[in-house]
Predict the 3D structure of the following.
Amino acid sequence: SSMCNWHSIVRTSLKNMSGTKYMRHGAAHGKGIYLATNIVTSMGFTKNSTPIWQKSRFAGGRTHIVALCEIVNHPTLREPKPHYVVPEETWVVTRFLMLVKGTPKCTSAKKAGSAIPEKLKLALQTRLKKTS
């Protein structure tokens, strides 16, 4: 999504805008929230329309905001072909926002997950257990 949308997304979560005046792209694979397993695919749908403070480390180049989301393991959710299309907003939880300048070095969600330090994984798992 565009940089200007993230404040609202963080406050209210991702929304299924399919078929509304807020839909930015066609629903080629059906109605729902579209999630990719490859960050480069997601970055193709971001828009850098918001001016960045000129002294920011992210000024002077293409900057993207991309979310790392968790999807509920629901029996009716289909495997990505080529993307996840999640019809229910409550099945998607934004866990991290990443500010990316240029092209990322790690493009696959599986590769990125394997690069997370073990201590951080344990801390996240503990936190998730406490909230569920």
About this structure: The longest strand covers residues 92-101.
